[in-house]
Amino acid sequence: MITLAHISDVHLAPLPRVTPRELMSKRITGWLNWRLKRARDMHRDTLAGLVAHMKAQRPDRIAVAGDLVNLALDGEVFRALDWLKALGTPETVCVVPGNHDAYVKGALDGALATYGAYMTGETLDEERFPYVRRTGQVALIGVSSAIATPPFVAAGQVGQPQMERLGKLLTLLRDAGYFRVVLIHHPPHAGYADSRRSGLWDAVLLRSMLSQTGAELILHGHTHQSTVNAIVGPDREIPVIGVAAASASPGGHDAPGRYNLFRIERVGSEWTCNMREFGYQRIGDDITMRLQMRIY
Which of 8, 118, 127, 280 pairs with 141 at a CA distance of 20 to 30 A? Predict the structure, then answer.
């Protein structure tokens, strides 16, 4: 049995000092959003409590679905590296970038240069994404949907070259009998994904590819909500699981911080996957199990 923890939208707080020069870009809109809203909602103590509870479960692997930072400032990027080191080693922690990690042009390059060891694995060629991490017969495939966008746009895009590589990997892993978990920041399911402002611009193409190759599970972040959806697969629906922002405090605008824990096991020729969701309630500081369900 393999245990996989799923966490996202860390948005490390508090925001470091920002210089006027750094605000001469899209960052001015994010800084204002932080000052007016997120500074009250995103707390490091909330995140610390959630991570401690998650690590006590002793997962075999931790999947982080992006948005470690807020404005992709240099100080935030180095803080993200320290946070990841405390979370676990690159061998046990898998990360994909989110739109805030690529907030402005060049920001994602800085993140990859600083904590890129957490976003590496087996690949088909010299390109970093998608990458594969295998634990037993469970394969986690890290996909990047992070791109720099104009102000007031938080959308993502996989891109045709990466999508072609992803299709090949999913086919190879399917033929080898792996339980395939796709980790991506932006959700691919219809509805939210189809938003031009905050969705996944090539979600239709991604869904079309997945309808042919299949996958056993898709994990995402971005929405700051705990959700269970599905997309069409070749033989059965593919579960699409989102999780609330990890540092969101109880009583804030978003759903309070949560994480998912999956227990994946092969019995004979069949896979089973059971999910439990843990997190804060709207009132109080206790972390409880909020949901338990079999998804595969």
Answer: 280
